Structures are given as structure tokens and as C-alpha cells.
Amino acid sequence: MTVYRSVGKRSLDVFGAMIALPALGIAVAVVAPLVLLSDRGPVFYRSRRRGRDGTHFTMLKFRSMTPDAPDLRNADLSTVNSDSDARVTRLGRLLRKTSVDELPQIINVLKGDMSFVGPRPNMTRQSWDELSDVERKRIRVRPGITGLSQALHRNAASTRLKYRLDGLYVDRVSLGLDATVLVKTFTSVFAGKNINAAPHAREKARRA
After folding, report:
1. For residue 51, what are the CA distances in angstroms to 24, 26, 105, 124, 145?
2. pLDDT range class, residue 203, cuts 50, 70, 90
3. 3-state helix, strand, coil in the chain (%, to 5)
4. pTM reported for the whole predicted model
5. What 8-state DSSP symbol labels residue 99?
6. Which residues contact 81 (CB under 8 A, 6 or more apart)?
7. 8 A C-beta contact, residue 16 and residue 110
8. How many CB atoms lie within 10 A of CB 74?
């Protein structure tokens, strides 16, 4: 295991999270009142996720759906993600387009649940014995706010492609790769493309 994998990556995560805390504070000050004014529901969305080595943690996001939104899943248990999803609020669409909804995960990074870069964390619907080899490989590292799949395709990749890219990331974790993922992620968000799952990706998920 390289020094970056064992020590450097976590050290940079803590440093980056500390630097980013003021930005999170500003985001909370702006977003929280808007969420409360829109429907008076909770400001944050809390979701139980699977972390490194199968540990569980609560992931935070700004809520982008209606408070009573049903949990809709594709056949492969991935979240239904569509530009016509009636569960997403008007404010939520803006938060998702700009990825501001992900900012509260800075707290998860600071706590050690997540990293800035890594495979996106899955929900804990399956037991450890039910996980495939591919899924177990993904959780050899801390899950990330963004990952290789998100940097290249944002939300438009099929589940199979996401997992393949996640496996590639686990095999090649390095400072250079993390820096590339972060730069490409910012570029993708700025371009405003692939916010929702592509139709072909949703179709593959239903047939999985």
C-alpha cells in the first residue's frame, strides 16, 4: 500500500474539509431558509450508506425532494434519477444541477466516513453475504463525494459502467488521479451536463 493510500489521502481530506467548512456554512445559511420556505420539511436528507470495509454511516445532503417522497428504485437497486421526476422540488432541481446538495458531505469527510474522491456510497439494503465481488471491491476504499464515474459521466453512466470505473479507481488510487477527478468534476458541474441518468442507463438498470 502506497503512502498516499495509507496516510496522504486521509490527511488531504481532513485539510480540504477544514478549508471547505466556511463554504458549507455559507451554503447552509442560504439553502436552509429556502428549503424551509418552500415546504417546511427538513433541511437535510439523511441516508444510511455502506462505507469502507462494509461499515455503515449516515450520509448527509441538502434535501432536494418532497418530504414524503417514496423511495423509488431500479431493478438493480440504484436510485431512480430522471429529469421528469415529480418528487424533486423546484429548488431541488437547482441544488442538483449545481451539486450544492452534496456539500453537507464535507461533514462526512471530516468525520472519516467519506473521502472527497472515491466510489459513491451505496445504500445498505443488502447484507454482506449478498454483495458481489465487484461491490466488495468498491468498498476497499472510503466512498467519495465524487468519483471517476461522476467525473467522466456525472449521472449518465449505467450501473455496470459505474462499477467498472469504480474498480479501476480502486486499483489505481493516487494523488494524480484524485486531482484529475476533482478537476473533471468541477468542469462537468460548470457545464451543467448529465445531471440525470441517461435514458439508456435507466433502461439497462430496469433490465438488470
Report:
1. 22, 27, 13, 9, 12
2. very low
3. 55, 10, 35
4. 0.86
5. T
6. 155, 196, 197, 202
7. no
8. 19
What is the percent of the chain where pLDDT is above 70? 86
Cα distance from N-terminal residue to C-terminal residue, the chain: 35
pLDDT, average across residues 144-155: 92
Sign of the alpha-carbon dihedral angle for 180, 47, 102, 156: positive
Instruction: Name the CA dihedral angle for 134, 97, 33, 79, rounded to a multiple of 10 degrees.
Output: -30
56 contacts 50 by C-beta, under 8 angstroms: yes
d(CA 81, CA 198): 9
d(CA 166, CA 109): 18
What ranges make up the beta strands (E) of the chain?
44-50, 56-62, 115-117, 144-146
The Cα angle at residue 59 between residues 71 and 92, in degrees rounded to 5? 55
